[in-house]
Description:
By secondary structure, the protein is an all-alpha fold. It has one domain (10-59). It contains three helices and no strands. It has helices spanning 10-22, 28-44, 49-59. Helix 1 (10-22) crosses helix 2 (28-44). The longest helix is centred in the middle third of the chain and has 17 residues, at 28-44.
Amino acid sequence: xxxxxxxxxxxxxxxxxxxxxxxxxxxxxxxxxxxxxxxxxxxxxxxxxxxxxxxxxxxxxxx
Length: 63
């Protein structure tokens, strides 16, 4: 599996580091990966493309 870089603002990254450490993750990257996988699995459970769009709008990812 290849790695990709994602930019986060400094304030958000500091929060990620803090909570990753508190939750016992080995690294902020591991914590971020877990969070993304969890959210994506919720979206993947949707039955239709329209339902996926509705969920993404509800989460604020698309308008």
